[in-house]
C-alpha cells in the first residue's frame, strides 16, 4: 500500500470556508487526521472517513509532533487517501515543515491544498482590509516565541499592519513593544475570537488599551493592529 | 431595488481553489463584476450571471477605481445579488477599502467572503512553508509603491520570510535593499508565476541572483524570500 497524503487547510472554521478542492478530498478520504481546532461541522464533510484527533496544545510540542509524523507515515501505509486537516492554511503556522520532512523521508507522495488563513477571514468578518491605499502597503503575520521569556528576542515587525496569531497571552507585551518602537497609542486594534464561527466575538480598542491587557478568556485569538483597522465613517457596527 | 453586494476572493486561479461559499454565491449571482486577473474557468461557475469585466492594469488607477465604485453602486440598484470577484483575497491588496466606502456611503449591504491569498497558494504549490519552527516565525506580504521613484521610501519588512506581491518589476530593487540591510546573499528565493494555473512556473534562486534581475516576462509574479524557502533534503523537484 502506498497511500497519498493531502495536507489540507480547513480555513477559519465555518464549514463553507474550506476550498472546493479541500471539501471534495475530504469526502473521498479514507483517514482524516485533524487538529483539535478543526470544527465538528468541518468533520461532517467526511462521514465515511476514519477520524484521528491530533490534540495538540501548547507545551510538549516536539514530542506530540513526532507522534503526529509517525501517525501520518503509518496511515499512508494502510490507506490510499489520507488527509491531514489543519485549521487555517497549513503553510502558515501549521508545522508543515516537520510533517513534509517525515513524509518525504518515508517516500510518501504529498500534495498541499491551501486554505483561507485566519487573518484574511478576520479581515472579512470585521470589514477591515489589511492593506489600504496610502495607509498600509504591507502586513506581517507573526507569533511570539513559545517560550514567553524569549519573546523580547523576536523582532517586532515593522510593517504597516500587524497580525499576531495566537496573540491572547502576549497582548500586553506586544503593545508595550509597539509603543516602545514609536507606534502611536491611539493606533486602532481589532481582536477577534473564533473567527467565522457561531461564537465569533470582535473587540475594538487601541494600542494603549491593549497594553492594559485583553481582559478576556484566551480562546484562539487574533490581534490585528494598524491604521488600516480604523473604522470607516459609514461602516456598519460589528 | 436594494441589492446586496458580495466581495468575494476567487483565490489564485484554479477553479476549485475558491471557497465553497464563494462558489455557491457565484452560482446564484445576478451580476458578477470581475477583475482582469480572474480566470475564465472561475467565471464558468456563474454561467447565469451578467458579467462585467473591470479591466484594471497599472496606471490611471484612481480614475478606474472610481468607475468601478460607481458600477458597483449602480448594479446594486438593479439586481438582488451582485458579486464583486477579485483574485486572491479581497482584503489583501484588493482595494477593498475604496469599494466598501462607496457602497457604505450609498447605504448598500455588503458581505465579504475571504479567499485563498496568492502567497499561501504559492507556498502549497512550491511545498515551501512560509513559517518554520526555529527558522521563521513571521512573514510579511508587501508591495512596492506604484510610483517606482518612491519605492525607496517604503520600509523593507524585517520579518523572517518576505513575500512581494506583484514583485516582478521591483525584483532588483528589493534584492539590493535586502542585501543593504544585511540579509545573506545566499538566502533562498522562490519566484512563482500564475500560481495554481496550467501555465504555473517556479524559479528558484537566491538574493544575489535576484539582484541581477528575473530575466523573465512579468506576468503576475510572486517573490518569496527567506530561509524558510530552502529546499528540504528529500523534497521532490518542482
From TrEMBL, chains A, B:
GO molecular function: uroporphyrin-III C-methyltransferase activity
Broad EC category: transferase
SUPFAM superfamilies, sorted: Tetrapyrrole methylase
CDD domains named in the record: SUMT
Gene3D superfamilies the record matches: Cobalt-precorrin-4 Transmethylase, Domain 1, Methyltransferase, Cobalt-precorrin-4 Transmethylase, Domain 2
Gene: cobA
Pathway note: Porphyrin-containing compound metabolism; siroheme biosynthesis; precorrin-2 from uroporphyrinogen III: step 1/1
Signal peptide: none
NCBIfam families assigned: cobA_cysG_Cterm, PRK06136.1
UniProt keyword Zinc-finger, yes or no: no
Gene Ontology BP annotations: methylation; siroheme biosynthetic process
UniProt keyword terms in alphabetical order: Methyltransferase, Porphyrin biosynthesis, S-adenosyl-L-methionine, Transferase
Organism, scientific name: Duganella vulcania
Coiled coil: none
Family, similarity comment: Belongs to the precorrin methyltransferase family.
Name of the molecule in the record: uroporphyrinogen-III C-methyltransferase
Domain Tetrapyrrole methylase span(s) in chain numbering: 4-210
E.C. designation(s): 2.1.1.107
Pfam family, any one: TP_methylase
